[in-house]
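Researcher: Quick test of sequence recovery. Tokens follow.
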């Protein structure tokens, strides 16, 4: 799956791959095992139509072998998180591949490996400092949002914040009298 997703940018061109909506729609279809097969099929067909990919042979071929790379089709098979573990491994290989090549001597390989590790360590330190010292902007006056900001990493907080914001401004309680009973419904 990781290899297939890495090839998408070559197969669709810069304009589509640089679209956040394109990437998030495709990722929502293939990086989850929460969809039923029918939901995947419907989503895939909408995706192909919305991005005018009907004549793209590569996407047609990938759809043809979907049962061997889309998690939806093997969600009932116990894989012990192998899919996600493999994805992490492939991601690391890709990262180190940018810093090394097969023509390096052992000394050059070790030097470039150390440079790559230093780069990762530096980024991790920057992220840690940001997490420890920066308070994200709050969207509501709710105490629960402020508490979440102090407890979660920035990435996790942003997801929680969206849920809090949506619940606060897009949900409501509606009371209905049904017979002799007052019923509260969320909408």
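Model:
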């Amino acid at each position: 799956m990781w290899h297939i997703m890495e090839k998408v940018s070559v197969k669709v061109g810069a304009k589509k791959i640089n679209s956040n909506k394109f990437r998030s729609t495709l990722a929502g279809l293939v990086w989850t095992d929460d969809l039923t097969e029918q939901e995947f099929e419907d989503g895939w067909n909408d995706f192909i139509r919305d991005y005018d990919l009907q004549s793209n042979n590569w996407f047609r071929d990938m759809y043809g072998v979907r049962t061997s790379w889309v998690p939806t089709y093997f969600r009932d098979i116990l894989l012990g998180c192998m899919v996600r573990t493999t994805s992490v491994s492939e991601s690391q290989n890709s990262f180190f591949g940018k810093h090394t090549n097969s023509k390096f001597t052992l000394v050059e390989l070790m030097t470039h490996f150390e440079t790559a590790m230093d780069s990762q360590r530096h980024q991790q330190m920057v992220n840690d400092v940001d997490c420890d010292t920066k308070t994200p902007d709050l969207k509501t006056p709710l105490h629960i949002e402020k508490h979440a900001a102090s407890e979660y990493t920035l990435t996790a907080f942003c997801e929680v914040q969206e849920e809090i914001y949506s619940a606060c401004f897009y949900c409501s309680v509606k009371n209905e009298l049904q017979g002799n009973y007052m019923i509260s419904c969320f909408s």
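DSSP finds nine helices and two strands in the chain.
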